[in-house]
Amino acid sequence: MINVVSFSGGRTSAYLLWLMEQKRQAGEDVHYVFMDTGAEHPKTYEFIRNIVSNWKIDLHCLRVIPNPEMGKASSYEEIGVNDIGPDLIPWKRMLNKYGHPYIGGAFCTDRMKSVPFTKYCQEKFGKGNFITWLGIRTDEPNRLKRANGFRYLADISDFEKQDVLDWWSEQKFDLGIQEHLGNCVFCIKKSMQKVALAAMDEPELADAFINILDTEIKTGKEPVMYRGNNTLKSLIALFSDISRDELASRMTSMRQYDSGSCSESCEAFSCQLGFNFEDAA
Predict the structure, then answer these.
(1) Distance in angstroms (rounded) separating the CA atoms of residues 212 and 31
(2) Total of domains in the chain
(3) Average pLDDT score over residue span 190-210
(4) How many CA atoms lie within 13 A of 70 on its CB side?
(5) Taking all residues of the chain, what is their mean pLDDT, rounded to a whole number?
(6) In-domain check, residue 205
(7) Is residue 173 part of a domain?
(8) In what residue span(s) does the Phosphoadenosine phosphosulphate reductase domain sit (predicted)?
(9) How far apart, in Å, are the Cα atoms of 197 and each of 69, 150, 176, 251?
(10) 266: in domain
(11) β-bridge pairing 75-79 and 150-152
């Protein structure tokens, strides 16, 4: 059976990739795919390129190309690892066809990750001829949803979150960002505190994200995407009287960086496998 690692760009997913590369070198049929949303942190893209260059990984990078006709399936384009980056192009394409995601309608992962991944793999390997591997650990029991055609890091490693962090601390490169900046920087699945802290840390990225929403959403209304019926603008304003360090301290005391507390990777197929917001972001 063909094994395809759906690489999210995070540490746990990258550790899975490393383990699977050992299997590939031992003779197993293993492939690696990254679905680029164009909305990750610049350091995430740097991390991905470091993985490719240091481990000599053949990583296939995909970006969704929605069919402008409603009811017609999206396609994808494959681009080089040096061409992925925080340009928001896939995000903009999705907004143009589907509008913005929202609490209760987080279709973004499906449209930008699951759909292009599935189409690519079915075209390349044939339907039913491959197993999808996701970077889900043993300490994430709520995310270990058993389903045909899927396997997880937990199936081949007993590493928990701290084990992964310890492993990366021994490598010559690492993902150089704090967890609230992981995944899409302004992901709607994150807590309001994480989004606000991300905007404080990366105001230029926040401005670019807001600008895309302002120019691409044609309803004439502010896009309500976040918890508490907030737009990104209103969410930023909500925390404007709190210092960056105070907000970060509050999040630590609330254990918002613990496993299962909205700190994990945003995997493809999170909707199909039944991950909830706290599980998948």
Answers:
(1) 33
(2) 1
(3) 97
(4) 4
(5) 91
(6) no
(7) yes
(8) 3-142
(9) 37, 34, 16, 10
(10) no
(11) unpaired
